[in-house]
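Thread: Newbie trying to understand structure tokens

Hi all, I'm a second-year student working on a class project, and my supervisor (Dr. K.) asked me to get a predicted structure for one chain before our next meeting. I've only ever worked with sequences, so writing a 3D structure as a token string is new to me. If someone could post the tokens and maybe explain what I'm looking at, I'd be very grateful. Here's the chain:
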Amino acid sequence: MFPKRWAEPDITFLNQSADSIEDRVRTLMTDWCIEYPSRSRADLVGRFRSKDHGQHLGALNELFLHALFRRLNYTIDVMPAGPQNHTAPDFSLNSHDLPDFDLEITVAEVAEEERARRNRASVIYDSIDRIKTRNFMLFVESWSGPNLDLSSTWIRNTLSQWINQLDPCSIPREYDIDDLPRTEVDCGSWKVKFRAVPVDSDSHGIDDQRIIGAHSSGLDTPMKLDNEDRIRRALQDKTTKYGPRDRPFVIAVGFGRDGIPPSVRSLQRALFGSEQWLVQSGVGVVSALRERNGLFWGPEGPRNTRVSGVVLIRSIDAWSVATAELLYMENPWAVHPLLDLPPVFERWFVSSTKKQLIRSQAARSLARLFELPTSWPESVPTTD
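---
Reply by user tm_fold:
Sure, no problem. This is what the structure looks like when written as tokens:
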């Protein structure tokens, strides 16, 4: 089957692909939708089917977390969606064995300008993928320039002429990247560098083979590897949205698979403050400090104490629900602490001295919880 196009929304590809992998994903998503409360299902399905990345990802995170906590034997009260709900978070979770708490769910979107640049790059990549060649794939090495406002047709034709003149026999059987043919497409204020990678002979003539085998995510500006700002933006409005709580309140932040996965350090910076380095002149002593710009630690000390902690959902889409990572970072100053979570969460908490984060590793996999193989959806569950 043909692979997903760069600019194609996840939901469009999921709906149209006849491949067995997408069929398994559709089946699981449908099963989870059926489990979702009927009074809120129509709104959830509508957002899940949206071609808007943020809407789709937000609904997917809600669906995923509902399925997860349901299998952890929580009773889940789903609050009505939409502007009419100003009084309660998305889920109210109750359990006989574990602490009850409220859960608000949000998505860490990239900035609007960055999203526009990525969308434009995807259109260009789709155009390049229309080049027909049996001998090479392309590695998009780097981008540079003020914007991506150029002709997709022009760049495709330029690359097509170059790559079809190359001889794969001129490249050593065992090669380094410096041995690969390289070209730079120069559009004046905009440049992109490509390398041609020889294709294995077994892949020659395969119609659905992408010509772009790998690409740089940096695009036309230096890529920011840290996700601190994305996390902080996602959390900012949620910390005070519902006022004081009478029980633990947790915010879950979902990250799609559209960039560098968020690190524990990124979450730590967003919650406890960005890192600074103090160098004492003439002494050479370097000390690590934190700015008072965290969601939990601000200019006057602890803040947003109504938030018990933050769940970070790393790199999730409909295909990765069996392998997504769940990190929970506690607020050490929370009015209502949530000190115990099921073992599918990797838990991070501040030591009693409040100077060091301690990690408690997840002891149970999501694949096991959902009764799926770890290689799902490439493989299917087996029955005994």
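A couple of things are worth pointing out once you decode it. Residues 217-225 have pLDDT under 50 and may be disordered. Residues 191 and 368 are 47 Å apart (CA to CA). Feel free to ask follow-ups in this thread.
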